[in-house]
Design brief:
This protein is α+β, with helices and mostly antiparallel strands and about 625 residues long. Among the domains are: about 10-70 and about 205-275 and about 590-625, 2-Layer Sandwich (Nucleotidyltransferase, domain 5); about 105-160 and about 320-405, Actin, Chain A, domain 4 (Alpha-Beta Complex), CATH 3.90.640.10; about 425-505, no CATH class. The chain is about 40% helix and about 15% strand. Strands 12, 13, 14, 15, 18, 21 and 22 form a seven-stranded mixed beta sheet that branches. A six-stranded mixed beta sheet has the order 3-2-1-10-11-23, sandwiched between helices. A three-stranded antiparallel beta sheet has the order 6-4-7. Strand 19 and strand 20 (about 465) form a beta hairpin. Helix 9 (about 275-280) packs across helix 22 (about 590-600), helix 10 runs antiparallel to helix 12 and helix 18 crosses helix 20. The termini are close together.
Length: about 625
């Protein structure tokens, strides 16, 4: 077993049943029980087709769920949301936030937002356009005078939009049906995943059990309605589940248990989003930048392996850009004054405006006239005309100056953390730490101290230097993050506890800051183990997800990374390449496509965790079979 277990799960399975029976069961599992009648000698390509047709790939995003067979060209995608009917009449409605966040009404938030906007305007003014002239920012006052006098035109007395029909009082509704429930109906609205993790909270439906039940209901609905696979037939299918690079072990364990034991898939492979994104784009190595709706993650993948030290997750994404655009349009006198971020239909409208008009092309300047329609149920269809200037550029630039989002009092950057341990998995890193010799631990401590980078590589939003210890978390996994760990190891680790604590303090300060997207990419690449790997990553920066799908985003990110990368690499890296649409694919589908590719690889056969094995050995199977270090 990976991690030094004296008895592997494979060996325990071997002892449990004879070789012939095991071989029969393995063949049965790999082919799938529900198999069409075919000739005795089946062509290899047909075998792969049959096998892949019985594999379902699930990519659970924060705002959009994507599920499909491994043989499908495109997955089915629906809003990842569920509405549940109140159990008692008169119960107050609870609705999870989508674009709104906590702490945005504080004075500190507004000050931070204004400071961030000043930095954005400075960046716009300082960069020249392609014709060599300097771009002059357009102030919000210039658009406000025009927009204030605009009134909507009535296109039709009926908008044509309808609320979801709830006359039969369904227990739950999923996807778009959930979003279009009349606010007066007695339903709670839940997003089971937020910012890459299960959406646990103290409110109604926020317990681990409730969130897992929501996931099971949503996924089962899509599989039955859109993939047309009856729930009772899932025992003939296997599943590939994509998880974030920085994952919560407990959450992954519970999701695997739900898929195998509740939904009753026959087997599962769990893999990381960044590696699947590399597979889906046809790259063996890349710095994967996944800009989602709720979070942004950066990770370097080398030869199909996610490098742990390079992983980081930023707690902002496309929905924050949407909220920022709304704030900027309000400053410019946005004529649709009834627009509320607490209204799901208004949020959908703002998302559409962002996708239609926002850009990162600094050659586009001046005031432009635009129009949009508002079609809400039980209301006339309205046409609004309005005028915008730099707001369309400022909103997506907030990804590079995240102070503009005005998020305060929240953890903005997440790095890999030590495992908290699991009673079902006795041979984890704690076991390794306790059984290592003194010489091994001292040697690793000395080697890690030599590999620490110099501090002060990055600055926060106020221009103050940040001390970043790139490999602190991997050191902690080997050295122990507290005095108790040192006592367990039973030796004096040459490095005093005070030094460990000071590095932990430095990293906690770093985690409190909101790194811009370009600085996050530079930090991730700088954490790579060798200069050769860093050069490889600079020449292959893969952007996936739907949060950076703006005109000229590729050139904008490429320019910023080239200007901010260390001078030593600027001389030796031949070409910095930012890839936003590999093979002309939709960047939102690339990770899912990589999961489908994974299903067809021969090496994947060694990664399957079958229902009977999970039932017997539990989470130990993830340590044994996962394609990454669990």
């Amino acid at each position: 077993m990976r991690g030094g277990s004296p008895v592997t799960v494979a060996a325990m399975t071997q002892a449990e049943k004879g070789e012939p029976e095991k071989e029969k069961e393995r063949e049965k599992d790999q082919r799938g029980v529900k198999r069409p009648i075919v000739p005795a000698v089946v062509p290899e390509s047909l075998q792969e087709q049959i096998q892949s047709n019985f594999i379902v790939v699930i990519h659970p995003g924060s705002s959009t769920l994507r599920i499909g067979r491994a043989t499908d060209t495109h997955p089915a995608g629906i809003p990842h949301v569920i509405a549940r009917r109140h159990k008692q009449p008169g119960q107050p409605a609870y609705r999870d936030k989508w674009i709104l966040r906590d702490g945005l009404n504080k004075q500190e938030s507004n000050e931070q937002r204004q400071n961030g906007l000043k930095m954005v305007d400075q960046a716009i003014w300082s960069k020249k356009m392609s014709n060599g002239t300097r771009r002059i920012p357009v102030s919000a006052e210039q658009a406000r005078a025009y927009n204030k006098q605009m009134r909507p035109a009535i296109l039709d007395h009926s908008s044509g939009a309808k609320w979801t029909n709830t006359q039969h009082h369904p227990e739950h509704l999923v996807g778009e049906e959930a979003l279009f429930i009349n606010p007066t109906d007695c339903y709670n609205l839940h997003y089971p995943i937020r910012r890459g993790q299960l959406n646990l909270h103290p409110g109604p439906g926020g317990s681990l059990t409730a969130v897992l039940t929501d996931l099971e209901t949503i996924w089962s609905h899509v599989i039955q309605k859109l993939l047309e696979i009856p729930r009772k037939d899932l025992k003939y299918y296997r599943c590939i589940l994509l998880i974030p690079d920085i994952y919560n072990r407990q959450h992954v364990k519970e999701m695997v248990n739900m898929i195998l034991m509740k939904m009753e898939f026959s087997g599962i492979v769990v893999h990381q989003e960044s590696v699947c994104a590399a597979y889906g784009s046809g790259l063996s190595s890349a710095c994967v930048v996944d800009v989602g709706d709720q979070k942004t993650s950066v990770c370097c993948v080398e030869d199909g392996i996610s490098q742990r030290n390079t992983r980081l997750c930023l707690a902002y994404g496309g929905s924050d850009v949407t909220r920022c655009l709304h704030w900027l349009m309000q400053r410019a006198g946005f004529p649709y004054r009834e627009c509320q971020l607490s209204n799901k239909l208004d949020c959908l409208l703002l998302q559409q405006l962002k996708e239609t008009y926002s850009h990162l092309d600094q050659d586009v300047s001046g005031l432009k006239d635009h129009e949009f329609q508002v079609r809400h149920p039980d209301a006339p269809a309205l046409l609004y005309q309005f005028r915008l200037g730099d707001e369309k550029l400022q909103a997506p630039m907030a990804l590079f100056y995240p102070a503009t989002f005005g998020i305060v009092g929240q953890k903005m950057t997440t790095l890999p953390q030590r495992s908290q341990g699991d009673p079902e998995d006795p041979h984890d890193e704690y076991y390794l730490l306790a059984t290592q010799s003194k010489q091994e631990q001292s040697a690793k401590a000395a080697a890690d101290r030599k590999s620490l980078p110099k501090p002060g590589l990055f600055e926060d939003s106020r221009g103050q230097s940040l001390d970043i210890s790139d490999r602190i978390h991997s050191q902690e996994a080997e050295l122990g993050s507290s005095q108790n760990d040192c006592l367990v190891a039973g030796n004096d680790l040459e490095e005093p506890l005070a030094a460990l604590l000071s590095r932990k303090t430095a990293i906690s300060q770093f985690e409190g800051k909101a790194l811009g997207l370009d600085k996050a990419v530079l930090h991730s690449i700088d954490c790579c183990s060798s200069d050769d790997t860093k050069k490889k990553m600079y020449s292959s920066i893969l952007v996936v997800g739907g949060g950076l799908m703006f005109h000229k985003a590729q050139q904008f990110l490429q320019h910023r990374i080239l200007n901010k990368m260390p001078p030593s690499f600027r001389r030796v890296v031949d070409n910095i390449e930012v890839i936003t649409r590999p093979k002309d694919m939709d960047p939102r589908l690339i990770a899912w496509k990589g999961g489908a590719v994974l299903a067809c690889l021969d090496t994947t056969q060694e990664l399957w965790i079958y229902q009977r094995e999970w039932q017997r050995f539990g989470v130990r199977m993830l340590r044994e079979r996962a394609a990454f270090v669990w």
